[in-house]
Amino acid sequence: MARELEVAVAAATAAGEILRSNFGREQVVRYKGEVDVVTEVDEQAERKIGGMLREAFPEYGMLAEEGGAREGGGEHRWIVDPLDGTSNFAHGLPVFCVSIALERAGEVVLGVVHDPMREEIFVAERGGGATLDGRPIRVSETDELIRALLVTGLPYDRDAMPAALDLLSRFAVLTQGLRGLGSAALDVCYVAAGRVDGYYERGVRPWDVAAGALILEEAGGTVTNFRGEKLDLQGLEIVASNTALHPSIVDVTGADPAEDLLGLPAPSFPRRVGPPPAPDPTAPNSTAPKHPS
Q1: Residues 79, 179 within the same domain
Q2: Residue range 133-153, pLDDT digits in tens
Q3: Per residue in 224-236, pLDDT tens?
Q4: Which are the contacts of 271, defined by CB distance < 8 A and separation ≥ 6?
Q5: What CATH number did the domain enclosing 214 receive?
Q6: Does 174 appear as a known binding residue?
Q7: Which residue has better confidence, 40 or 241?
Q8: Where is the composition biased (Low complexity) (predicted)?
Q9: Beta-ladder partners of 240
Q10: Are strands 149-152 and 177-179 parallel, antiparallel or unpaired?
Q11: What pLDDT score was predicted for residue 81?
Q12: Crossing angle of helices 40-56 and 2-22, rounded to 10°
C-alpha cells in the first residue's frame, strides 16, 4: 500500500490547496436537492484527485460524490469526497476537508482525510494504526455518557428531521454536550484523535465516512450502524466512538423512537406542509417591509 498511500496523500493535499485558495471567495453554487449544495470548487477538486489517481492506478475503479461511479478492471476502488463540508465552505466557515479511501475486495484498507485550513492530515492503513501529521492517535477513554462530548449532523432530507431531532433531544440530556461540525469525515477523525468522544448520524454516504471509519478503527475505536451491527457503507447511518462508550450510544440510537428513556417522553415534531406563511407587516415588532397605502 506504500505507493497508494503516497499518491492518496498527494492527491488530498493538491485538492486541499484548491479548496484553501478558493475559500472566502464568492462561490457559484447549485443545488442537488432542497438544501444540499455543490460548488464549482467541489468539481475542480474532484477532477484534480481523479486525474492523479487514474494516472497512477488506471485499473482502479472510483466512487466519487460528484462524479458517481467508474468501474475498474480489478478489486480496487477509490472512494472520494473532494469537499466534505460544502455548505460550510460556501458560507465561509473554515470546517471542511478532503476524504480519500481505498477499498479492496469490498474492504476499506486505506484512508486519508486532509483538513486544508488546519493543515492536518489523518492517515490509516488497515493493521497499521492511525496517525495525525505522522504522530499516532488514539480515541478517548471516556466511559460514561454523561461525561461524553458528542458530535452529530442533521439530515438534508426534511422528512427525516423529526427522528433526528428526537435523538438530538435525548442525547442533549444524556451527555455532557453535543456539537455539529458540518463535516462527517472530520467528525469521525476528531473521535479518532480523542478531541470528542463519539459521533452519530443518519443520512451519511460512503464517501462521507469510508476513510474516517478506518482511521477511527485503527485509532482503537468502534464503528457500527445505529443498532451496533457492522458498519455498512451503503447503510446511511453510523455510530463511531471509543469501545467503552459505544454500547451506551447505541442503546439510544437503536432504541424504539417511542421508548421512554430516563423518564423522558419521546417528543413529537409537527411537519410543515407548504411554504411558511408570509409575515404580517401590521403585526407588532414585524420585520416585514411596510408599503405605503
Answers
A1: no
A2: 999 999 999 999 999 999 999
A3: 999 999 999 988 8
A4: 159, 162
A5: 3.40.190.80
A6: no
A7: 241
A8: 283-293
A9: 199, 223
A10: parallel
A11: 96
A12: 160
